[in-house]
Fold this protein.
Amino acid sequence: MAIRSALYGLAVSTLAVAQAGMAFAQAPDAGAAQQGTADPGEEIVVTGTRTAGRSRLDTASPVDVLSNAALSRQGTTELGASLAAIAPSIDFPRPSAVDGTDAIRPATLRGLSPDQTLVLINGVRAHTSALLNINGSVGRGAAAVDLNTVPTVALDTIEVLRDGASAQYGSDAIAGVINLRLRQARSGGAASVTYGFYDTDVNTARGDRHVSGEHTLTASAWQGFGFGSDGYVTVSGEYLDRRPTNRADYDPRVTPTQITGRFGDPKTRQYTGWINAGSSITDNLQLYGWLGYQERSSESAAFPRLASAATAVSGIYPNGFLPLIHTNSRDLNSAIGIKGTLGDWNVDANISYGRNRIAYETRNSANYAYGNASPTEFKDGTMVYDQLVAGIDVSRKYDVFQSLNVAFGVEGRREGYKITPGERASYGYPEGADPTKVGAPGAQGFGGFSPLNAIEKHRENGSAYVDLEAQVNSKFLVGLAGRVEDYSDFGWTGNGKLSLRYDVTPWFALRGTASTGFRAPALQQQYFTSVASVVVNGTPILTGTYPSTAPVASALGGKALDPEKSTNLSLGTVIRAGSFDLTVDAYRIHIRNQLGLSENIQASFSPQVAALLAPFNVSAARFFINGIASTTKGVDVVAHYRLRSVSVGTFDFTAAGNINDSDVTKVPTSISSLNPAPTLFARSRILTLEDGTPGTKVTGTIDWALNDFGATARVTYYGNVNQPGTTAAADVFTGRRAIADLELRYQPKKGVQLAIGGSNLFDTYPRKYPAALNSTGVLGFPFYSPFGFNGRYLYARAGLSW
């Protein structure tokens, strides 16, 4: 019924835009000069095709082109949240109380895992975060690219390829590709300051309150410099200061009842700088490169420790305490390359290096094993991921058929992953202490990495591809791509893609693709280790997350991880008439051998499990396992119409929607000869894959501009999302919700620019977290909510353009 209603709403919106498009298709092109924007569908794309000059509506695969203006005309300055607001197939949940994932949030495309979308920067593979999401959030078990390391101010456009593309770009491109295209300017510049705050009524299961404040301040600027005949240097910078939000419920354990937790966005302070540059070095060759660096400090909260549970440190915290988890992320992006022509061939050779380092600290906390002598701040250790990529891409057009574009290339990649232990007090007992006479070791809230967790691993891979695209005649386009990759850890894999497009008439075309894809297991998934030690009866007992090939995991049936594999099918249509265009694309993505993080396999499950774990003094272990299979089916619809008028200005109408359904069709039930076999994946893990993102998302947007004035109005409908529990009775649903945004602005091309606006104007929340499932009062709302759970946000932006 929900899908039927959403389809109806999307059909009505699309029909309305279509009727407007047909009615005004022959209208004069008034106002085009004053707007200076491309006609709809005429944006040239470089993602999903290696044929130069192909526009968004001429491709065989669906590609969205999102401008810097569209990303900037909203309250949020987070790139991930900005993308999710305007691209219906992208979602950006805002989890809370899930440790490092609070600060480094992953985005999803078409409801698939965050690490099943490839992210490029100027067509070059971006590096993932060092963070592995191991807690109960959307994307559990994934190590994904942190989109928020690239500020909106540094970007010109973003291209979103909604199609499998492993045969073209390699690992991770199962759901599609997000290509971040950096701003490239020889002159001009702008600066702006955005200030916003929440003004909201928070109605939780145990009480109501009004919140006004929790501000966010963002200051950004860019400047272009030109030199020589075509040289450019574009410098961009951003500063972000975000206060924490709190949507926790009242704690029923304390009298009088009060809020003891902190549940919401983390406190964040962030500095980001980017340089993008290029210049011709000969008549035929250009040198180019970029450098980006970000330092982000975030602070989120663990669950509160009441005085009754913190007796070991009552001298420090007589009233209990709220542990704070601090992450410091330092992120580097860099690349240098040469491109141009050598004879009849177009050549692009580049080398890129990226690195992410996350240092953890626990503050306002205690190690119970130290008693009242415990420190209150702990350095918990670091995780580092780095990636070096070198590649050469070559292409040429031949006068075969109407035209034949031949492209091929090679790429080499080296990855590294390292965990460095924290200080002793963050994970262990005091030196010389009798473990049988003191409390449990480790910083409360987030225990540090011990020497048992230390790891340093590398791997290499090489790949080669061929990509052919033939315009057979004026109507028929055929694309064929193949790619082979060889990894030093699991071996080689090959993938292919067939793309077809037939233009039945100048205004109507059919398109479709069939491809295979893969995603290599991340180093983080292969080697992440988080093992805690507790002494029981004088013997150290271990519990935690192990590599799948560690001795304890092998004893339980763990094996070296293999790549995930997919089969992608899509079929779509393109309709255009004057300033109106409509694309409808259906897809089916079948993923096999998918990776998942198992549940804790407890020694207490059976004597057989206890016997296997006993030699390692382990009471519980979990690790990654291949074997999940899923099928995702869906439809993407995007309709756009531009109406230009001298008297009333230019209107851009967009109606876009994604209807998506995922089914887990196979789950491993045993990885060894254990009988009975422990549960490897709980129902909550499976339902997160199936129902953790909205099955329906529909967005309607109106952009208006007249001379120096403009406005954007947007309504986004989100389908119901399930934050699953251990049983059906513990499932928490977000409900079906519509979110309205509005921005009014004065924005001349040069000079002072002003804007005011509101996100979630009608102060809409997901359903309340049920009191019966919330014994601590921390969880005010389900954090699977695709639009967050912070309420109405009001903002103002002031800038200067030159």
In short: Confidence is low (pLDDT under 50) at residues 1-37. The radius of gyration is 27 Å.
